[in-house]
Hints:
With about 375 residues, the chain is an all-alpha fold. It has helices spanning about 1-10, 20-30, 40-50, 65-90, 95-100, 115-135, 165-185, 190-205, 215-220, 235-245, 250-265, 280-300, 305-335, 345-370. It folds into 2 domains: about 1-100 and about 180-195 and about 215-235, no CATH class; about 250-370, no CATH class.
Amino acid sequence: MYGLILLSILLARSPPTHLLSAVLFASVLCIKHIYLYLAPAYFVYFLRNYCMGPNLSSRHLIRHIRFKNCFKLSAAVLTIFGASFGPFAYWGQLPQLGARLFPFSRGLCHAYWAPNVWALYSLVDRTLIFFAPRLGFHVQTAAINSVTRGLIGDTAFAVLPEISPRLTFLLTVIFQLLPLMKLFARPSFENFIGAVTLCAYASFLFGWHVHEKAILLVIFPFRFVSPVFDLDYRLSYLTNCANSLLALKDYRHFATFCPLVVAGHFSLFPLLFTAPELPIKIVYTAMWLVVFLVTFEKLVTVSSTGPGWFLSWASTFFIMLSIPLITYTSFIHGIFFRDKYEFLPLLLTSSYSAVGIVASWIGFFWLYFV
């Protein structure tokens, strides 16, 4: 599915293949609804480039709608959705399907916190429990074990206010609309890649009951953030794909991508197999990081002064911090505590990863507009 998503992104670059790109994305969306995170960027991009035209002033957009293209795009997408959901509608199962696709009853946080804003919110709530008596805060004793019990269900906070699905939806929409406004005004392929990435960021950081593996939806499109796509359209897609691996030539993009990819991969460790296969995931990830960092540092120009210097050192410090954390969560905790404080390694993993991902989002959000 990720292969199809990447192919869809590459096909979206050239006007003759816009329709095929939309068909591929609609197909993948029907296979796995998590790709709905990326749908707003696709909608705005094809609305402007395929249905209206990218080079028109805002006053003439409605007058110059390409009705033939609108019909082709609508027919193709509706055919795919009809084939996917038609049988469920025929048997009257759409309400049950909707409840399964959007399980709001499962609570704000996953059993293991996805490293997003709500993980940090939960961490603050856990911390305030110890200081609440001194600060005069009221503690709901029934909610003390709510977000650390490792079960799927309603999440209740002991000190901080409760978070509703409506609030998570509102925050997600707000932080998606901002890049979408720029994409609508300037529907270039570069802005499309940025909007896809930021839409995935917003859904992951502010969404309801986000699964930790959804961070891959941010990492994959971020790889295409690059001036390399200014190359002539006549280059083959295979060449574009190969060049995209050398894409992050700007030190600022590189500095925001590094904490994202390290935190994203580290956050997935608890989902992967444990002992006796534990060394495999650690050695494999370490080898990948060494190859990645050494290769990209040769391509990225890091300024010795100014924000480039700060971003580079901050990113390096964050990456180095992962080494003692992995050592503790994978080995030391089990040796000293065994079955006690089982949630502590998960809490440390989620909190560390959330800091890196949120910082990466803030950095890239600023770069997208500046």
